[in-house]
Structure prediction request, 466 residues.
Amino acid sequence: MNMQALVQFIRNRVSIKLGLLLLFVFLLILFSLGNILYSLFLTFYLSHVNEELVQRANSHANVLSDHFEPTTIQHVVRMEKGSRNMVVILDQKKQVIASSSPITSLHREYLKASENKQEGETSIEKDWNTKPFLVSYSPVLQNREVAGTVVMFSPTAPIREAVNILQQMLVISGIITVFVVAGILFIISRMLVRPLLEMKKATGEIAQGNYATRLPVRGGDEVAQLAASINHMSDRVRFYQKQRNEFLADVSHELRTPLTYLKGYSEILAHSQREGENAEYAKIIYEQSNRLQRLVQDLFDLARMEQGDFSFRMERFSLEDAVTDALSLVEVPVEEKGIRLEYRPFSTSLYVKGDRQRIGQVLLNVLENARRYTPSGGIIFVRMKRNEHYGIVEIEDTGPGIPEEDIPYIMERLYRVEKSRSQVTGGAGLGLAISKEIIEKHKGTLQVKSVEGEGTTFVIKLPLYN
Ligand SMILES: Nc1ncnc2c1ncn2[C@@H]1O[C@H](COP(=O)(O)OP(=O)(O)OP(=O)(O)O)[C@@H](O)[C@H]1O
Ligand SMILES: [Mg+2]
Prediction:
């Protein structure tokens, strides 16, 4: 996964976004708290260590102020013998009189530095990080005169060790908390996001027309309320869909009988009156009632197919035969319009199982569209192919094409790209809706590919049957 894909992945997931945000905030808090704790501890600890050292040096200096003599000096030196600290006692001229441990070159540096110290003042070297010792200088005063100096060395290694341990502990506990918190956040955000994912899936299915989809409603929070609303909406849509179908089926059913009479009698009228205005009118009535009858029949078929109570007469037939039948019907009108028809059959016969007449109707609908929308001088290609499971008929034209924004809707009933319903440019917008229903009832697919200004290809796929 490259960087861009990763960013996209994170962007598209609420759970990760939420988790990362919370984790970031938490880390910020953890980091600042850790920092504050660390500096507080360090300050207290160091000041404590320094103070202790200075106090000890001062108390030795006080004792020596009273008795600056060998026995007292030996006594002081003995006091520091076993301890971690080291004491060195200097005389007035900064010469070493006694020390509790052997003096090394490291110590000597500090002793030399004491020569430049302000006379009669206590001072301390407190760089614990880079220097080997903390060093405290306390003057031994006798009658306001400096008689000597008590120099106390305390090694800094144990301090650094303690600070190191503290840092390690902070880092380890930080890492552990980050993992624990990340885990908890991940679980929480998953819990929040999971119902949303379910809803996304369910609404997708509802949009596909699968209204039986149900969302579980857990509890009464906003997310549960949303799920309940979606369920409710799905019910309403299902209700309206059913009502619309029933209405269409009823209306078209009721219209059929009067239409048959209208058509029949106008036909008789048109034939019996051979001349004059009345004959003209009778002919118009006949043509229009014919048109109306086709429309009503289409609506009726569509409503019944969508309701599922439409029976097909299933048989095994050669797809090629169905194609040539349909072609023979459109051949003449196509050529009359000045359009060339090119047909390429498949090398062997492809057998499918279905209602041959209905499949023929689909082929005719698509071919009729190609003829209707392709201007003269164009070409209609009809090709047959197959893949592993499907027999395929492709009908391609060099017509005006379908605008991209219309493509998703052209198979909806009554949808037309050209919105004016003039008789010249087209019909009612039912042909593809019916075709799609028929093909889907046969477990096949009807697809359209179109480039505006170049042409349109309809691809019909039907499951093979051998
Ligand atoms: N080959 C094509 N080239 C360009 N546009 C097409 C083509 N086939 C279909 N269309 C567009 O899709 C719309 C829907 O087609 P459909 O066959 O469903 O309806 P219709 O042809 O207008 O009417 P009906 O088929 O009911 O007489 C058409 O109105 C047309 O705008
Ligand atoms: Mg049509």
Remarks:
- The radius of gyration is 49 Å.
- The chain has ten helices and twelve strands.
- The chain has a mean pLDDT of 89.
